Amino acid sequence: MLNVLFVCLGNICRSPMAEAVLRDKIAKEGLQEQISVDSAGTGDWHIGKPPHEGTRRMLDQYGISYKGMAARRVSGEDFGTFEYIVCMDKSNGANVRRLPGGEDAKLMYFMDLLPDDEHKEVPDPYFTGNFEEVYELVDAGCEVLLEKLKQDLASK
């Protein structure tokens, strides 16, 4: 089983969108028994809350489920559980590094999946309001990540 954790600030916009999109792609490939996905935030403001209404609206538009998703905070225990910890921006990566065990955690940044894109980080739609732009980035990046995960599974 490969385990993927997406990390953003509050765990209500970017990371739950990526979680839902990747879960949907995994289900369409029939890989639910081989790849698990979760998301978390580095802040604690929204713990227990569902994804932001803008995220829900985008996921609804594309028929992607977010049922049962609730914000949580990333913890040091995640470092032993997840092979892929995918941070949506450098600030959240730095916050993860400050957690106990985080200095040695193997992190990657979401936009590294899309090296030709003009964005260096996934913009936070909580502040920009542009959930469509974020969905397009997340959808494209999750497609690349899924291919990487399938290669990793094949090599095991």
From TrEMBL:
Its EC number is 3.1.3.48. The active site is at 8 (nucleophile), 14, 124 (proton donor). Residues 2-148 form the Phosphotyrosine protein phosphatase I domain. It catalyses: O-phospho-L-tyrosyl-[protein] + H2O = L-tyrosyl-[protein] + phosphate. Keywords: Hydrolase, Protein phosphatase. SUPFAM superfamilies: Phosphotyrosine protein phosphatases I. One of its GO terms (molecular function) is protein tyrosine phosphatase activity. It holds the Pfam family LMWPc. It is an enzyme of class 3 (hydrolase). Belongs to the low molecular weight phosphotyrosine protein phosphatase family. PANTHER family: LOW MOLECULAR WEIGHT PHOSPHOTYROSINE PROTEIN PHOSPHATASE, LOW MOLECULAR WEIGHT PROTEIN TYROSINE PHOSPHATASE. This is protein-tyrosine-phosphatase. The lineage of its organism: Bacteria, Bacillati, Bacillota, Bacilli, Bacillales.
